[in-house]
Amino acid sequence: MPLSPTIFKSLALITVFLTPQWVTAQWRVIDIKAKIHMRAVHAVSPTTCWIGGSGGTVLKTVNGGKKWLTSKISGADSLDFRDIHAFNKDIAVAMSAGEAQHDKAKIYRTEDGGLTWSLVYQTTQNGVFLDGIDFWDKNKGICLGDPIDGRLFILTTEDGGKSWQELPVEKRPVAEPGEACFAASGTSILVAGKEKVFIGTGGGKMARVFRSDDYGRSWEVSATPLPAGPTSGIFGLRFWSKSSGIAVGGDYKKTTDSTQNVLITRDGGITWKLTGMTKPGGLKESVALYHKTDAVWTGESELRSDDYALIASGPSGSSFSADWGKTWQELGKEGFHAMSFAGNVGYAVGANGLIGKIEKFSTKKKKRKLVFVDQ
Fold first, then answer.
1. I need a surface site. Which of 60, 265, 295, 337 has the fewest CB within 10 A?
2. Cβ contacts of residue 361 below 8 Å, gap of 6+?
3. What number is the average pLDDT over the span 214-229?
4. Residue 71: strand pairing partners
5. Is 343 exposed, middle or buried (0-12, 13-18, 19+ CB in 10 A)?
6. CA distances, 257 to each of 248, 284, 318 (Å)
7. PANTHER family in the record, alphabetically (predicted)?
């Protein structure tokens, strides 16, 4: 028996309201009234964040983005800071990417909140191109550069970045022909735990992941199924446990190309598998971990409810996954190159002064209330 128009309308309405809805927050864009290009960001806390950019510029906020201190490092006007690591509101290390033979491979450090900076490393060695830095603690750190004579260029520090030493050539990871790294977000190198460090590459036929369990003194490497080439491969890495991690990438010449761009490992980086593509698709340069903890005091102990999400960003927009990379949903269309989260508060940066902030993000599906319409 055919349905009457009235019954059909009511049923259609009920179907719409029963559909699960993702409840999310969007990025809030912060206007810094400057057109610098930015690919380096580190959120030390929900309120303190450091940013590195072009023109030798470093930005810092200590009040959640309401106000920003801008530093123009003396003698660094031609430098592009592609990675920054901060220990607190006063101490930070900034790394510039560029050809060393043109005096662009440098590392600076500040101890007074960015008012003054000391040049702690520089080289004019032909072919050196720094890609990223990271630290295990307040003393031990590592810096990655593109291959020299077939081996990745590695620097280490034992004093919080005050001085840097080149890893002996024979201990550096061996690269394949054409293999290199991308200085796009500062996350092609990632430290994890007490001694582990990972490096994601491109440039060759397939993307690979190098790993070390001894602060970068020795290395092993794994091939991945992610295609690579001169402009494509792995751009960003993130681990959320000893065994589980993610790598994102793509092609910086084809930023909206809808090909697989996410890898997952469940065995500490030994093997990697392709998983669901981000939405929107295209190049993803950075991936971060959102973590929100709601705690209720019962009088004796805290009852905790934790929300986690992976967030990936790139020129085509940002995506989030609430199931550890299996499926993705669109989060925003802003073209962020790099992100950093401190718990549930995240900061992201892009070209032409683009800064975003996000908080109060919900990863849970909720059903709208069932509504009956009286026709």
1. 295
2. 24, 25, 290, 292, 307, 309, 320, 344
3. 96
4. 58
5. middle
6. 14, 11, 14
7. PHOTOSYSTEM II STABILITY/ASSEMBLY FACTOR HCF136, CHLOROPLASTIC, PHOTOSYSTEM II STABILITY_ASSEMBLY FACTOR HCF136, CHLOROPLASTIC
* Mean pLDDT over the full length of the chain: 89
What does the pLDDT read at residue 126? 95
Residue holding tokens 């010449």? 253
Which one-letter amino acid corresponds to residue 131?
A: D
Cβ neighbors of 207 (< 8 A, separation 6 or more) are 200, 201, 224, 226, 227, 228, 232, 233, 234, 247, 249, 263
253 is written with which tokens? 């010449």
Place of tokens 């959320």: 240
Q: Which two tokens stand for residue 70?
A: 């801008």
- The whole model's pTM is what? 0.88
Q: Two tokens at 344?
A: 């549930």
- Using pLDDT thresholds of 50, 70 and 90, give the confidence band for residue 365: low
β pairing state of 57-61 and 69-72: antiparallel
pLDDT tens, residue by residue, 60-106: 999 999 999 999 999 999 999 999 999 999 999 999 999 999 999 99
